[in-house]
Design brief:
Mycoplasma_p48; Peripla_BP_I; 6-stranded mixed beta sheet; lipoprotein; 7-stranded mixed beta sheet; alpha/beta; 22% strand; signal; Rossmann fold; membrane
Length: 419
């Protein structure tokens, strides 16, 4: 027992091979059997030296020992980053104020792409619904399970994980915590538990439009796409884009080439490992290789690495341009707006907000949300600086294509499409 701010403090240090080490501090209050409790869970990758350095900080003040953690949750004003753990069977949505939380994939919240767009939905929930929020940014794929657990421990009512790569750890967390609501962006696991809602988007439809548009605007007769990784949430864009080019050729009796992706072989150009979604230099090299092959319009589906493609087209001196993905590139990447024809957007911010609101209102279910052209969950962003450069007949043709996709007259074949 040690005195701390006029109270008695008992500190327990434990080490787990799975969870790393933890400090548990309890200080007795005036009322018997009532305790204040702090738990700080740190990555097992922290060194023993940091453990020894952190212990005095707990004795001094429990909050200061958070500095020893690699992945402490980033909580909004009024919510505690070092919240108490909650038992798997306890319903966090009924444990005090409603709290919405998010875990990014390894590209981080500043990817100018789907993590950042998803976070906008969480921020909107905080401002419009008045809910508390917390988030944790993953630095590596190995962080996902630990970061999800940290959000459970932070007493989150709903936890949104961002990206296909978080499927397995999100499924495991949802099954282990049946009374905590979960939602996952860009993934649709088979037979999700009742507390897990998939948030997915049929971007093959909007990418089809993008492929048609690129074909109508190319001056070299070659357009291109490349991905960050060969995963369904990436290849769905590439499938739609390539098939949009094929449709243009059939309608106009042209022979525009789509390079970087072969729909039949389901193979193409991807950013080099490691960390391909963060490899900006790798994205630039991949884009430059496609430009060197004659492409003058590129659709990068590579998260933050897509910034490399924007750098490549900008340095072309007006000879090449890009179509961005996930969000409106002129808003997320204003420095490159003069080179962004349009963007294939996904309404991830809207889907996240709606999932949080449904959980807060007691209307949450595990039925997948599927964003489509018909419901506005995906589509093409405004043309911005290219608006006057796109012929009126092409704009009308895009509207007709949208109607034909919605009616089923145009069929897009992609194994990655939502079922």
């Amino acid at each position: 027992m040690l005195p701390l701010l006029g109270a008695s403090l008992t500190v327990k240090v434990s080490i787990s091979p799975r969870r790393g080490y933890s400090f548990m501090a309890r200080s007795a209050t005036h009322a018997p059997r009532v305790f204040h409790r702090w738990i700080i869970v740190c990555s097992r990758r922290q060194s023993v030296k940091k453990l020894h350095l952190a212990i005095p900080a707990v004795f001094a003040a429990a909050a200061l020992s958070l500095s020893a953690c690699a992945q402490a949750p980033d909580a909004s004003t009024g919510s505690s980053a070092g919240s108490s753990t909650s038992a798997a069977g306890k319903d966090n949505s009924n444990s005090g104020e409603f709290k919405a939380c998010m875990v990014s994939d390894s590209a981080g919240f500043n990817d100018k792409s789907f993590n950042e767009t998803s976070l906008q939905g969480l921020n909107k929930a905080a401002s419009d619904l008045g809910v508390k929020t917390a988030k944790v940014e993953s630095k590596d794929d190995k962080d996902y399970a630990t970061n999800l657990q940290s959000m459970v421990d932070a007493k989150c009512s709903i936890i949104v994980s961002v990206g296909f790569l978080l499927e397995k750890p999100t499924l495991a967390a949802a099954k282990a915590n049946p009374n905590v609501k979960f939602a996952i962006v860009d993934d649709n696991p088979a037979n999700p538990p009742e507390n897990l809602k998939p948030l997915i988007f049929n971007t093959a439809q909007s990418s089809f439009e993008a492929g048609y548009l690129a074909s109508a605007l190319t001056k070299t007769g070659k357009v291109a796409t490349f991905g960050g990784m060969k995963i369904p949430t990436v290849t769905i864009f590439m499938d739609g884009f390539s098939q949009g080019v094929d449709y243009y050729n059939k309608q106009k009796h042209k022979s525009v080439q789509a390079i970087g992706w072969d729909v039949k072989k389901q193979d193409g150009q991807f950013v080099p490992q490691p960390n391909p979604f963060q490899n900006v230099s790798g994205g630039k090299a991949t884009a430059q290789a496609l430009l060197n092959q004659g492409a003058d319009i590129i659709l990068p589906v590579a998260g933050n690495a897509g910034n490399g493609a924007l750098q490549a087209v900008k340095s072309s001196g007006g000879k090449a341009n890009a179509i961005w993905v996930d969000g409106d590139g002129c808003k997320t990447q204003p420095a490159y707006c003069s080179n962004i024809i349009t963007s294939v957007f996904k309404g991830m911010d809207v889907a996240v907000f709606d999932a949080v609101k449904a959980a807060k209102d007691g209307k949450f279910d595990n039925k997948p949300y599927v964003g489509s052209l018909e419901d506005g969950g995906t589509g093409l962003s405004p043309f911005h600086e290219f608006d006057s450069k796109i012929p009126a007949d092409v704009k009308n043709e895009l509207k007709a294509i949208k109607d034909d996709i919605n009616s089923g007259k145009i069929t897009i074949t992609s194994k990655a499409q939502p079922k």
